[in-house]
Amino acid sequence: MPTWPAEPTADGRECLAVHDITVGYGTVPIVHGVSLTVSWGTVVSVIGPNGAGKSTLLKALTGRLKPLSGRVLLDGADVTGAAGNELARAGLGYVPQSGDIFAPLTVQDNLEMGAYLLPRRAVAERIDKVLETLPILKPMLKRHAKTLSGGERKLLAIGRCLVLQPKMLILDEPTSNLAPAMAHLILHEHVVSLARSGTAVLLVEQRARDAMEICDWCHVMVAGRVAISSAPEPLLAEQDFGELYLGARASAGDAADKEPADLEPADAADLPGLRHDSRYAGTGGDE
Ligand SMILES: Nc1ncnc2c1ncn2[C@@H]1O[C@H](COP(=O)(O)OP(=O)(O)O)[C@@H](O)[C@H]1O
Ligand SMILES: [Mg+2]
Question: Any idea which fold 14-82+211-280 has?
Answer without folding.
Answer: Rossmann fold (3.40.50)
